[in-house]
Design a protein that fits this description.
homodimer, four-stranded antiparallel beta sheet, alpha/beta, 415 residues
């Protein structure tokens, strides 16, 4: 049994017609017209399979086939259909459409499963103007309260999230009904592009995900002394920008020094004050991020950075004020699903590659309630979140067949 | 003959009552209520001396005594009465009030001068929301066109500059009438706080200014590659922030390496894009500034920085796009005025210190039309543009007497 390569290619191309941005890539943010069009297209596709479609309180789209012979809990394949601004055609979309492709292949081949098979497309996985990412998966796993969702507004337009969700077919006042309890589901599998270059460099199609990285963030404020850029002698300066620059480079040195592909360190947000050409910066603010699935590595990196910051602080007579603003633990993927994915990969004559996911995904939250696994597909040159995001159809075909085989195996072994 | 120490102290204290900012320091920006009050106070003070007061087209305040015995052109003492936000009591104000004090001392002592004596308080010397600093001195020396002034608006409120100038007693449509030609003035002397720590460290009251620094600025854009902060391997990154951080530190290293007090290098304006915690910065923009009165030193520093940027560019595979946005040449102070100031300092039993001004001043522009000189007064700990800006009355008294003697000497020797 095989998935239909031409059909998945056609479906990816069709979904990629929603949200074409004149500035490049796809822009399909929660509540936008293009996002609503993508939903409608997806629901039409599902209904053409005679699947039941339910849009839940947070507007997650659940597509269910009831061709099951028992009352076991469903096995679910899913990801998301929204994109970042100027994003790509595969991030999220691939996981939803391959889920649908596997479902259609099983229907066409008249295979009877013990478990109901579900496909889910989660609402607002990506960073968005409501500042709530992985919104759909966090809502169904009880991690977002009705109060938070009710009060969320678009930071550009001031629009209420509740209105966007209503347009998308949801209703936040029914949030409780959408929440899943442990064992409401037999398994959850998310297929996603790698977004990194490990598979590209190895020239392989797919990988089993072992863990999803922890994410640690500090908000750091550097207190120096603003002063006149001309009259203040170099020796008298307490330049907050230069201290922060050294801190950023110290982070890079520390992380590169670890010498592992599953550790990343980034300063992505950075500002100085008062930010005028003729004034020595008196204050700098930045967010330092470390990602790794290994808690001990994280602790050692933080210790090394602390030593570096203390040195800079002493040398320049500036102060670093540090606040931990995120400390999300790494999560392990289910051994049962990892094994099923590994067997499927090897049975399709592919080399077994195991990777850590260095990005967060809806799968992180699904681990709270069910056996969860992830399958990575190669991104060409590791690109994602951009117009150049690309994945070869050959790799997509391998991923689809691995996913199909995995579902069939899990259906046999899971209760 | 001596100036009146108690009176100048009292006048400085009175002027410092206009613009007291609840957030600290004085805020007296062009067109603000406090700036208008300061003008009124100053005009009242001048009129009490029976001096003629003229507010010109750009609202510079000219205070003139006609107790002269010839038709020689006036000798002018001046500075400005506006402040930066949360600025200090001395920057600008000291030069205007010491001018008035010298004028009053000469009147009281019934000294007849050959030249008319003038005091000027220039409009909007400091950076302001209209983005036109040294507005008054540049207007009278023909460096600002009526078109530029007519179209200037407050970047916060959108208010027209023409309205602010009208409120202050000027009228930009008469700009031509305010413009001075070469030799319309016999001399211009600006007394100003040093704003640096040279005099403070030497524990001296005053210094003769030899030159005013040149100011060189480049707008630099770093083109790297925005990418996912988790999934992009450290070795695959082209992080624009880290490249810019190295560039800022290279500037510091170059300037410190020159090892002279009259060279300064600063990055005061700095931004990154897209500026999100989970995205590797793809672009950075900053303004690199070098100040020195020595053109050769500037050229060598730029060459060294160019070498450094080329190295960073190659190492990180990022691109630096550089544009020179300001290249203001240094200006020399008039030898005649320098000598008169030096003689006066030594006659008052003070050590002769000569300094370069590392800040721009109205005096820069006055060099275009007349013999121009500057006298620096110690700033405690070199502080300026802040609430802590302070100058001892003992040092102010020395400066006032030096200024008085200098005017008397220049009156004799200048035609």
């Amino acid at each position: 049994m095989k998935i239909n390569r031409d059909r998945i290619q056609q479906n990816l191309a069709e979904l990629a017609t929603f949200g074409i941005d004149p500035q490049g890539g796809l822009t399909r943010s929660i509540g936008s017209e293009s996002e609503l069009e993508a939903r409608k297209w997806l629901i039409d596709k599902a209904q053409a399979l005679n699947a039941a479609v339910v849009t839940d309180a947070i507007a997650n789209i659940w597509i269910v086939t009831t061709r099951s012979t028992t009352n076991l809990k469903p096995i679910t394949i899913g990801s998301h259909h929204d994109t970042v601004p100027n994003g790509g055609k595969y991030d999220g979309a691939l996981g939803v459409l391959l889920g649908l492709e596997v479902m259609q292949t099983i229907i066409e081949n008249k295979v009877s499963l013990k478990h109901p098979l579900q496909v889910v497309s989660f609402t607002a996985e990506e960073p968005n103007p409501y500042n709530i990412s992985t919104m759909g998966s966090r809502s169904v796993t009880g991690k977002l309260s009705q109060e938070v969702l009710n009060s969320a507004t678009d930071c550009f337009t001031g629009a209420l999230l509740t209105d966007s969700i209503r347009k998308a077919g949801g209703d936040i006042s029914n949030l409780k009904e959408a929440q899943l309890k442990e064992n409401d589901m037999a398994a959850f599998i998310e297929c996603h592009i790698e977004q990194g270059s490990n598979l590209y460099k190895k020239n392989k199609s797919v990988a089993v995900v072992s863990k999803i990285t922890g994410i640690y963030r500090e908000q750091i404020t550097v207190e120096g002394e603003a002063n006149h850029a001309g009259t203040t002698l170099m020796e008298d300066r307490h330049d907050a920008l230069l201290a922060a620059a050294e801190a950023c480079l110290a982070l890079e040195k520390t992380i590169v020094g670890v010498g592992r592909n599953d550790v990343a360190g980034t300063v992505g947000k950075f500002s100085i004050f008062p930010n005028a050409a003729n004034i020595i910066p008196g204050k700098a603010e930045f967010i330092l991020e470390i990602r790794t699935p290994d808690e001990q590595t994280k602790a050692l990196a933080i210790a090394e950075i602390t030593t570096a910051l203390n040195g800079i602080s002493k040398q320049r007579a500036v102060q670093f004020n540090r606040e931990v603003i995120l400390n999300q633990a790494p999560v392990n993927m289910s051994p049962v699903i990892r094994e099923a994915l590994a067997n499927s990969i090897q049975n399709r004559d592919e080399e077994l590659i195991t990777l850590v996911s260095m990005a967060g995904h809806d799968a992180v939250h699904m681990t709270d309630i069910t056996n969860t696994g992830m399958l990575f597909v190669q991104s060409i040159d590791g690109k994602s979140h951009c117009a150049d995001e690309e994945t070869r159809i050959e790799d997509i075909e391998v991923a689809g067949n691995v996913l199909l085989d995995t579902i069939l195996e899990l259906d046999k072994i899971l209760e």
